[in-house]
Amino acid sequence: MVKYCIKRILIALLILFGFSVLLYFIVRLMPIDFLEDKVLGNTSIADPEAELERLKKLYGMSDSSFIGILKSYWDWLTKFVQGDMGTSWISGNPVQEDIFRNMGISFAISFVSLILQLLISIPLGIKCACNQYGKLDYTATVLTMIGISFPSFFFGSLMIKFFAVDLGWFPSSGLVDATLPPSTGGFERALDMLHHLVLPMFVLVILSIGSMMRYTRTNTLEVLTADYIRTARAKGLSENKVVYKHVFRNTMIPLVTTLAGILPGLFGGSMITETVFDLPGIGNLAYQRVLSGDIPFVMGYNMFIATLTVIGVLLTDLMYGIVDPRVKLGK
């Protein structure tokens, strides 16, 4: 087990290193130059060219040759492994500070949406599999396929048009009502925030339950035809006991593979949904910083997501040994 973990960690570090190299060179090719726009467009600076050169040297952008880029990459990587993601060009704050300050709202939305997704999609998938080709199966399949087919920006805009604009039931954007007095109590403010988050969470749940429901249904159908399920029924076990004790547990084994994407999804934010509803989450912030050409933030954010993804894959591999004792992790 220890040998396996060390091996997987070393592979994960190698993957992160390769990703950082590709990411750095791609980001350096971004067509937006925020430094030039900031300095050359500022009439209060006496010598814009000298100030621009100073900032480029400060951020390792002065030498655009291959050797210069390699040197600036190495300087960035050295700081990154020490926990320094650099300083944002937009806010002037450390990148990690901007990420963690805006991550809370994204985590709250993603976490609640994930719980609702699991509570709906897994029982629904098992129920559809146990009633294959029935009315519930056909209805759920059609609705989930429609949900999967909708782009998130289109479905989000549709919900805003119907529930916010036409019916006026929910706010169309933001996290807190702008007319709310600053002296409003914490409980009332929390209710107002929850009111603003209903539509974004609804969009995330509807668009995500389809794939997991179909995956659960397919896995359950495979398990239902297994020999040990026939044996359990032949022994006279009730259908509920067969399904929820034997079928359910073995259906969860393939679903463990989906855990790899949960970790970056929880902490990385939902970029499109947060942008459509103008939420102050990490996803919306990352989108705005990409448009502005904030290279330090783009590098830090993407490496943060990559690290979470690699950790999620590692945890998935370890979870296999827990949910399925037949999986050996010693090799």
Characterize this entry briefly.
With 331 residues, the protein is mainly alpha-helical.
Mean pLDDT: 81
For the record, what is the CATH homologous superfamily label of one domain?
MetI-like
**Second-tier CATH architecture of one domain:** Orthogonal Bundle
* CA gyration radius, whole angstroms: 25 Å
Question: Count of DSSP E strands?
Answer: 0
Strand and helix map with partners:
Blueprint: H1 2-28, H2 34-40, H3 48-58, H4 66-81, H5 95-130, H6 135-149, H7 152-166, H8 186-224, H9 227-234, H10 239-255, H11 262-268, H12 271-276, H13 282-292, H14 295-323
What does this structure look like?
This protein is mainly α. The protein has a domain at 99-323: MetI-like fold, CATH 1.10.3720.10. 74% of the residues lie in helices and 0% in strands.
List its traits.
331 residues, single chain, mainly alpha, 74% helix, MetI-like fold
